[in-house]
User: What shape does this take?
Amino acid sequence: MDNFPVLPTNGLVNDMWNGYFTLVTNCNVTIDQVHNATTIVATTQQKTLAEAEARFLRGYAYFNMVRFWGRVPLVDKPVTVSGSNIPQSTPAQIYAFIEADLNFAAANLPLNWDKSLLAVQPRVLLTGY
Assistant: This one.
């Protein structure tokens, strides 16, 4: 998966690309709403938990995307139509972003959750990025 060329006409790959970016979009909207929505009735702890969950999922999505495609657009906020032409980032930039998301998630998710949900973090750190 890391080094095999894939044609853009491959339907499965296209579905994966769209699925991962749908997940990233949903995570970015959640994080934005946690910080900016005035109508959300939640404690600070609940908002932090929601952000931690979203950042874990976003980090997981980017971990898979960077391994599959290498250079991908790094989207860290909700995208508008006018701001949708986002250049690709280097794998090093993507891995640093993943590490920040997973560190936030690890620091803010409850201890009574299954830690296997955070098992992807050591694999990211072992890549050297």
About this structure: The radius of gyration is 15 Å.
